[in-house]
């Protein structure tokens, strides 16, 4: 179970770091993207543009420090509940809001974003359960560690590139203004 926990820990730390860097690279773009969320008060958008990446970096730090791994998993789980709720509300309301989770994107939120966030939530919950029951140490056998690292890399790539993966399953639309 410690290998699964390590994979979850690495995945969450990588995803949170990449998301924070993407947002901090252009905080104005992220703040502007929050305008599409009708349920977020206008006064809170600018602070959220800084607080969200700060929370992501804090979770990464908690997961990186051995003494705070359990707290990191709990914080990640709570954070991922919010991350899952946001696109769920957007999709349920039928509104079109672009996902700026990793910086800027032209892709509107969809069920793919909900699924991605549910997987991150599951990773956080699994990591927390293992940390509470077995402990939060790092396992010692190299093949298991390598498998955990490869798994984390794969899960991180799938998470970060969910928009591109979703595009593979969409029916192409003809470009406007083109004639045959």
TrEMBL record:
Keyword Ribosomal protein annotated: no
Membrane-crossing residue ranges in chain numbering: 47-65, 72-94, 114-135, 142-162
InterPro entries documented for this protein: Methylamine_util_MauE (IPR009908)
GO cellular component term, pick one: membrane
First-listed, main subcellular location of the protein, grouped into a coarse class: membrane
Domain of life: Bacteria
Record's keyword terms, sorted: Membrane, Transmembrane, Transmembrane helix
Residue stretches in coiled coil: none
Methylamine utilisation protein MauE domain sequence ranges: 2-128
GO biological process: one example: methylamine metabolic process
Subcellular location, record wording: Membrane
Membrane topology: Multi-pass membrane protein
Protein name per UniProt: Methylamine utilisation protein MauE domain-containing protein
Originating organism: Actinomadura harenae
